[in-house]
């Protein structure tokens, strides 16, 4: 009864053609078919936000998306943040490190991908806008204060790097 | 929490989609349309929904638009909620619908979730059906017998049920022009920011010489589907747009509810009470709104 | 040779500490932000199968029959196990109190919704879940025991037949002349409290991959294990293997907060591997499984408590009567959670006498498990709420009432009536500072103005002691045999002067790898970048415990210092021998060993390590060619409990005072946190950023427990919480961005003077918020004595008069 579907996706710039079961979630596809384990799964029913990736540059919960729905899409995951040549951390990653915006780190990829979308659209967000953007991501460790600090720091750094 | 297996179809055109739905229906297949999937996916993961086939509308680009049709705002059913939230046209033409859209879930959900999907899903806690009831909203659907238009008050039937046939595809939502002087508000109560509302109220009214006119109030999150609070509307008609009247209207609206839902977060009595509070507050907000 | 563990950072052989005491970046973070850390579900082994577990839909039922034939024939299925297999191969898991345990899977009857009944190993998780639908279980339902009142009623159905009662444990402790102080009291302030179930809910659920080697009859378990050695012993016992044939490889964990470890899941995956001819079997608990039965439910408590108070506000006695609904068994060591309050029973106060009557009861709710704080959060809520009730009754300011009763700085070390010894503290300084940063008079003025407008605004000022660094003796009194808590490390150098540290635990979020790297780098005078911390599997690791009991930061510091002391002594010997100088003339300072009388004559660590590893001819007699040292640290000076459970259990006593300003919306019952301030004293702050993270994270969980989170059961004992739509953890919108400061009173007895600090905010926040809520309600003469103080509950309380008249 389960049908296999051929899909073509570009993940972090690499093209993949795969036959997948229709019911396979995008999260499971990324993690277990493509071995991109940085996208974590915390609830599988769309509440925690740990599995957030970008689909065509828009944040999405990969547990609430079927892999087949991502056919012909561009997917960006946390693995794409670091500079592939130098290995240097992205300013968002470095800011989370510097401002202690993580503890166990399990939810962090989701927070960073959400932050990436926020700062692309709004390089200078207010605290309220940061909260609004991150309201769909649960963190059980930090109590969010250092995450706020991290996002503010990232915004500051990304702005000055574009200016520079 | 993995979905049960299903067949999957992603028709390339609306005609193909309708033909496919008709064929599957004839075969006795239990099928389900998936648009953004933000409500359906959790139900699949929990296996509380286990259709034999999914018909995915993602390739129907023709259903992805926001346009002004001679003053009527038309939104294609596959338009994402975030696109609606980001649209200056939507914000200008239909401020209540726009505000309701911003209340839906979180950004990640709005990016994927479609405008049409929420209307068709008809979740009683959703803001959209209530908004549709207080605006002049029409739904366009295409089925094997062609296209038809369904007014909002005939669209929502009961809990997660609309008057769409299983072989029909919701193609667009149309909002009649929103008069610039018309006031509006939407208020809801949820345990946390972004949660489904335990109770909510969307309303529109005119304040004409200090008096309320053509008041329309709909409650959501309390009964099987969004419900017009006609008792509150009638009570306010021609009455001063003032706190005391809003308070009374809230009480009347709450009293009118048949049997509000109950869940671990809110009893029936509490929901009824919340509708009264939210109605009063939303009326105050709308009356105070300057254009 | 006695090893002296330094109790102050400045004792380390380094002129200028570069890392200890500074908010240095964490060594674990670059990999975590890159998404390359190997959480357990990122690991796949060749030939690996996937486990799915069928769980009971009934709270209490006899299993009449189990038919696995259809599931076994399903696509991709390799093995199925059920109670029959478990009965053949296992014994029930260890429990506290003993003898209240279940097998990893129900064998004859089910005792809670979510209890495993059968399990499938298949080639994918999807197929395994499909196969669960083909398992046919016939049940004969039994009357469930839904709450302690039902459980203790005569003729109640019995959850564990062989016990003949549902009362797991009853203990009655008396410390001091309780009857006298209550008889002589001018006021007796008593209340009943209800703390509903909450729990850990780390973002990563439990997961493991188990592989049974059929030839060697040994078991390897990779997984998210909080206490690896303890887990290995437990698995050996329940799976009937020699302990040295169980190897636990613990992986970084996406949070823990108590119940991380999954003994049942591990046993089930292990048995499936055994039945699959030794193929590795992965089990990843999903969120629904976690919420129903995953070791994430804690503290289901009914309190009846009283303070004895003199007319001047001196509190002289504290009586607590606790009935604790443990759920269906004691596999989560619930006794310990009920006993932990002994370590700081009377909080910050000089209360001379106290008593504790505790009854642990079995019901058909899910078994309870540890959660951050491990018992004191509800206890502190009771004590601190009673302090506020006392202040109201006496017309005193709640902050001043507390100040009046504080243990004074000169009284440390201070032995509380329940037996533990607090090492140090300065509670008044903490209180003064938090009142200052909160601007307490201004808050009171703001409250008065709001009250004049009819608004419900309240202030909570709550201080608690956080017992840190638990030890074996804390729980012996309630029937838990010695839970040893050693922490061992190995520190070694290579020929380039790099430092390797092997520990027995893995990452969980608190940053202990960073603390270990800071301490070793500052002791040996190397750059932190030269230090590599890694996790040893349980078969080769030194004795260790891992995370738990607000101790690991302190314990690993002690272990590192001990190992470094041994290295230091050994290196001095080597250098003295090479330089033909007396051993006493050689010192380690700033990363170099040299002659005190001729500092230009010395050797670098790399030179010493290189010499030791490559030139056996230059080694002094008796020194091995091994520039490595091990040390297993445990708290000094612990003693056995007396008949009333009194002993020196927790080594350190950190403390904190929180101030919250809240407003309750009269119409909706919703509580808004308007301001939140914290001043804490956990002694030396080894990494202040880590400490701050622990505090703020504890606040978030405390806010959850006080206002949002609850595992709800209906009258038939059916759980009504199975998703995150039902279990409401605070988001960024609900957690206050707190204002913080600190006082530093170094512990005189702990490594570098640091005190355990992982649980203090969770100990304090729920009480602070509830006290603030009750302060807000005071003008109405109403009190909220149940958690969480949800909008619905508060609304009912605010409107109960109308509700009854309506």
TrEMBL record, chain B:
Q: What is this protein called?
A: FAD-binding PCMH-type domain-containing protein
- Which GO molecular function, any one, fits this protein according to its record? oxidoreductase activity
Q: Which UniProt keywords apply?
A: FAD, Flavoprotein, Oxidoreductase
InterPro entries, per this entry? CO_DH_flav_C (IPR005107), CO_DH_flav_C_dom_sf (IPR036683), Diverse_Substr_Oxidored (IPR051312), FAD-bd_PCMH (IPR016166), FAD-bd_PCMH-like_sf (IPR036318), FAD-bd_PCMH_sub1 (IPR016167), FAD-bd_PCMH_sub2 (IPR016169), Mopterin_DH_FAD-bd (IPR002346)
Pfam assignment, any one:
FAD_binding_5
Q: Where is the FAD-binding PCMH-type domain?
A: 1-180
UniProtKB/TrEMBL annotation, chain C:
Ranges for domain Aldehyde oxidase/xanthine dehydrogenase a/b hammerhead = 34-143
Query: What SMART domains has UniProt attached to this entry?
Result: Ald_Xan_dh_C
Q: Which GO terms describe its molecular function?
A: iron ion binding; oxidoreductase activity
- What keywords sit in the KW lines? Molybdenum, Oxidoreductase
Q: What is this protein called?
A: Aldehyde oxidase/xanthine dehydrogenase a/b hammerhead domain-containing protein
Q: Which organism is it from?
A: Thauera terpenica 58Eu
């Amino acid at each position: 009864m389960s049908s296999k579907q051929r899909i073509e996706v570009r993940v972090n710039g690499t093209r993949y053609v795969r036959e997948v079961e229709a019911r396979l979630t995008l999260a499971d596809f990324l993690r277990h078919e493509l071995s991109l384990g940085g996208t974590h799964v915390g609830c599988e029913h769309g509440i925690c936000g740990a599995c957030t990736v970008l689909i065509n540059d828009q944040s999405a919960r990969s547990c609430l998306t079927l892999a087949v729905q991502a056919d012909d899409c561009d997917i960006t995951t946390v693995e794409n943040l670091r500079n592939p040549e130098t290995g240097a951390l992205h300013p968002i990653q470095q800011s989370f490190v510097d401002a202690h915006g993580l503890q166990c780190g399990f939810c962090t990829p989701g927070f960073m991908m959400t932050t990436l979308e926020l700062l692309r659209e709004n390089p200078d967000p207010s605290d309220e806008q940061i909260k609004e953007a991150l309201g769909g991501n649960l963190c059980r460790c930090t109590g969010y204060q250092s995450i706020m600090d991290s996002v503010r720091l990232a915004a500051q750094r990304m702005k000055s790097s574009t200016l520079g | 929490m993995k979905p049960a297996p299903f067949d999957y179809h992603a028709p390339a055109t609306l005609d193909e989609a309708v033909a496919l739905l008709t064929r599957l229906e004839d075969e006795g297949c239990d099928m389900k349309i998936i648009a953004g999937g933000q409500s359906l996916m959790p139900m699949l993961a929990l296996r509380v929904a286990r259709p034999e086939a999914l018909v995915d509308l993602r390739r129907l680009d023709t259903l992805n638009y926001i346009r002004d049709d001679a003053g009527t705002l038309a939104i294609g059913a596959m338009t994402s909620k975030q696109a609606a939230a980001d649209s200056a046209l939507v914000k200008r033409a239909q401020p209540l619908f726009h505000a309701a859209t911003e209340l839906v879930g979180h950004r990640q959900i709005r990016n994927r979730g479609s405008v049409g999907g929420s209307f068709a899903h008809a979740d009683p806690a959703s803001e959209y059906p209530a908004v549709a009831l207080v605006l002049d909203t029409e739904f366009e659907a295409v089925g094997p017998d062609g296209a038809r238009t369904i007014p909002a008050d005939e669209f929502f039937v009961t809990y997660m049920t609309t008057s769409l046939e299983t072989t029909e595809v919701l193609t667009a939502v149309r909002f009649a022009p929103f008069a610039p002087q018309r006031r509006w508000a939407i208020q809801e109560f949820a345990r946390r920011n972004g949660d489904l509302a335990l109770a909510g109220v969307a309303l529109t009214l005119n304040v004409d010489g200090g008096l309320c006119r053509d008041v329309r109030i709909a409650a959501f999150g309390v009964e099987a589907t969004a419900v017009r609070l006609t008792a509150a509307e009638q009570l306010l008609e021609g009455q001063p747009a003032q706190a005391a009247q809003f308070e009374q209207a809230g009480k009347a609206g709450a009293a009118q509810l048949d049997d509000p839902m109950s869940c671990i977060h809110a009893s029936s009595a509490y929901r009824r009470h919340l509708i009264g509070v939210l109605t009063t507050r939303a009326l105050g907000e709308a009356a105070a709104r300057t254009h | 040779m006695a090893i002296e563990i330094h109790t102050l950072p400045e004792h380390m052989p380094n002129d200028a500490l570069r890392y200890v005491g500074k908010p240095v970046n964490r060594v674990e973070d670059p990999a975590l932000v890159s998404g390359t850390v190997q959480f357990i579900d990122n690991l796949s082994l060749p030939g690996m199968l996937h486990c799915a577990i069928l769980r009971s839909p009934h709270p209490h039922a006899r299993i009449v029959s189990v038919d696995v034939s259809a599931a076994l024939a399903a696509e991709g299925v390799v093995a199925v196990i059920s109670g029959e297999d478990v009965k053949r191969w296992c014994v029930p898991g260890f429990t506290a109190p003993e003898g209240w345990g279940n097998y990893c899977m129900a064998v004859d009857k089910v005792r809670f919704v979510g209890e495993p009944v059968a399990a499938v190993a298949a080639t994918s998780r999807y197929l395994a879940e499909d196969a669960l639908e083909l398992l046919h279980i016939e049940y004969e339902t039994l009357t469930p025991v839904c709450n302690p009142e039902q459980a203790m009623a005569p003729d109640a159905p019995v959850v564990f037949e062989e016990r003949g009662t549902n009362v797991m444990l009853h203990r009655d402790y008396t410390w001091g002349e309780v009857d006298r102080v209550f008889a002589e009291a001018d006021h007796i302030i008593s209340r009943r409290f209800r703390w509903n179930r909450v729990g850990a809910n780390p973002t990563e659920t439990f997961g493991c991959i188990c592989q049974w080697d059929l030839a060697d009859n040994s078991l390897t378990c990779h997984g998210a294990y909080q206490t690896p050695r303890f887990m290995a012993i437990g698995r050996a016992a329940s799976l009937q293997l020699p302990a040295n044939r169980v190897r636990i490889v613990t992986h970084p964990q996406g949070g823990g907060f108590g119940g991380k470890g999954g003994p049942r899941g591990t046993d089930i995956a292990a048995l499936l591997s055994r039945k699959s001819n030794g193929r590795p079997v992965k089990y990843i608990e999903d969120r629904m499984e976690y919420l129903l039965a995953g070791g994430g439910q804690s503290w289901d408590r009914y309190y009846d408590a009283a303070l004895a108070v003199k007319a001047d506000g001196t509190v002289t006695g504290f009586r607590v009567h606790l009935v604790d609904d443990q759920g269906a068994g004691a596999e989560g060591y619930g006794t310990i959670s009920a006993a932990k309050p002994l370590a700081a029973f009377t909080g910050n106060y000089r209360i001379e006498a106290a008593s504790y009557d505790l009854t642990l009861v079995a019901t058909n709710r899910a078994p309870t498990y540890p959660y951050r704080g491990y018992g004191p959060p509800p206890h502190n809520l009771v004590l601190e709420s009673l302090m506020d009730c006392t202040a109201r009754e006496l017309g005193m300011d709640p902050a001043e009432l507390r100040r009046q009763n504080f243990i004074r700085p000169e009284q440390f070390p201070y032995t509380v009536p329940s037996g533990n010894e607090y090492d140090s503290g300065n509670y008044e300084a903490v209180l003064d500072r938090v009142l200052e940063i909160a601007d307490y008079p201004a808050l009171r003025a703001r409250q008065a103005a709001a009250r004049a407008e009819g608004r419900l605004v309240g202030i909570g000022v709550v201080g608690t002691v956080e017992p840190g660094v638990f030890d074996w003796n804390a729980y012996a009194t309630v029937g838990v045999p010695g839970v040893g808590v050693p922490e061992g490390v190995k520190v070694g150098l290579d020929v380039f002067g790099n430092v390797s540290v092997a520990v027995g635990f893995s990452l969980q979020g608190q940053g202990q790898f960073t603390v270990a790297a800071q301490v070793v780098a500052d002791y040996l005078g190397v750059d932190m970048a030269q230090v590599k911390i890694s996790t040893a599997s349980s078969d080769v690791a030194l004795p260790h415990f891992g995370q738990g009991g607000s101790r690991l930061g302190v314990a690993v510091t002690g272990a590192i210092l001990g190992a470094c002391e041994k290295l230091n002594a050994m290196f001095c010997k080597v250098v003295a021998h090479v330089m033909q100088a007396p051993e006493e003339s050689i010192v380690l300072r700033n990363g170099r060993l040299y002659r005190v009388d001729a500092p230009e004559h010395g050797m670098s660590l790399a030179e010493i390590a290189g010499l030791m590893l490559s030139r056996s001819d230059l080694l002094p007699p008796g020194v091995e060619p091994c520039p490595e040292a091990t040390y297993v640290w445990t708290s000094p000076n612990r003693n056995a409990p007396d008949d009333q459970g009194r002993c020196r259990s927790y080594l350190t006593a950190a403390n904190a005072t929180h101030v919250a300003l809240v407003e309750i919306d009269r119409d909706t019952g919703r509580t808004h946190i308007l301001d939140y301030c914290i001043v804490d004293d956990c002694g030396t702050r080894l990494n202040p950023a880590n400490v701050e993270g622990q505090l703020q994270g504890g606040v978030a969980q405390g806010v959850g427990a006080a206002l949002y989170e609850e595992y709800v059961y209906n009258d038939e004992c059916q759980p009504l919480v199975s998703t995150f739509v039902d279990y409401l953890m605070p988001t960024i919108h609900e957690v206050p961005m707190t204002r913080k400061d600190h006082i530093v009173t170094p512990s005189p007895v702990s490594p570098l003077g640091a005190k355990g600090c992982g649980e203090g905010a969770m100990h304090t926040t729920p009480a602070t918020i509830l006290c603030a809520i009750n302060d807000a309600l005071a003008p109405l003469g109403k009190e909220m004595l149940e958690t969480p103080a949800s909008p619905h509950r508060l609304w009912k309380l605010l409107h109960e008069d109308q509700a009854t008249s309506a």
